[in-house]
Amino acid sequence: MILSCFTNSYGRFGPPAAFELLASAGITHVELAIKNAGVPSFFGEQPVATDQSTEAEIVALSETIQQAGLKLSSCNVTSGNPLLPEVFQATLKKIDHAARLGVSLIVAGGGAIEDESEWEALVSHLRQIGDRCADSGIIYCCETHPGTCQNAERMLELMERVDHNSVRINFDPGNLFYYNETIDLWAEQKKVAPFIRHVHLKDCRGKFEDWYFPALGEGEAVDFEKLRTVLVEQNYSGPCSLEVEGIQGEPPLTLEQTHERIVQSVEHLKQTGWTIN
Question: pLDDT tens digits for 4-59?
């Protein structure tokens, strides 16, 4: 398994802070967010890549990452609901950027429908996304988000309907607790294990709609030692990407405080048997 860090974990300081500081925490891989041009980021950072970035800008970004001594484990190309035509088109552009960056995995939404009649359009879009990914040797990993990937039951239905080898699952334990009122984390993980190609490491307090995503080990809802053991037993070998999104209502963190949560998370993983590479 590869330990990585999602650039969103650096909040308003964005990818440049991640590029500068991750190595000091012992992390050599990064999950890069490719944002939507003209859409303010939830975290308030300035994006380093969007769906409208030029090829030259993507090449320059790749060089910046290499100069920082980092490798890309994946790109996060979340654009919204891929059912929508504009989101579908933005996702295709981001897939092309990810291909230029040389990644084999991307993370994004699996979509949502309001009624059964929308399944056909969503499945069509996801299959076309899968085809575009396959052309570049990329797997599209559907994020654990509301809608078709809110829990294992819905994920399995999506996988069955789309039926595409380049469309798989990103497993996020913190999001399972956040988006479901009652959940058995390990039962959920076991059900979708054959489809997991990417993992987010996110802690929480195990409460529904509770935006409490601190340094790993501080939420106490996710047993990261057990998670590591389960993934090893399932022969999972992909990225495990830190995602530390902060705590609702807390004062804005300094860069030092933000980075310290990454350092603390790495230390917690070491204490629970993870190998940091």
Answer: 999 999 999 999 999 999 999 999 999 999 999 999 999 999 999 999 999 999 99
Residue 30, strand partner residues: 5, 72
Determine the Cα–Cα distance for residues 181 and 172; give it in Å rounded to an integer: 16
pLDDT in tens, 198-210: 999 999 999 999 9
Nearest Cα neighbor of 16 from 66, 52, 64, 75 is: 64
Is 138 part of any domain? yes
Judged on CB neighbours under 10 Å (0-12, 13-18, 19+), 264 is: middle
- Cα–Cα distance measured from residue 17 to residue 239, given in angstroms and rounded to the nearest whole number: 21
Number of domains in the chain: 1
pLDDT digits 0-9 by tens, 130-182: 999 999 999 999 999 999 999 999 999 999 999 999 999 999 999 999 999 99
For 275, phi then psi, to 5°, come to -95, 125
Residue range(s) defining the domain that contains residue 168 = 2-271
Query: Are the CB atoms for 182 and 146 separated by under 8 Å?
Result: no
CATH number of the domain that residue 117 is part of: 3.20.20.150
List, as one string, the DSSP characters of 115-165. SGGGHHHHHHHHHHHHHHHHHTT-EEEE-S-TTTTSSHHHHHHHHHHH--T
106, 108, 154, 229, 245 from 142: Cα distances, Å: 9, 5, 11, 23, 19
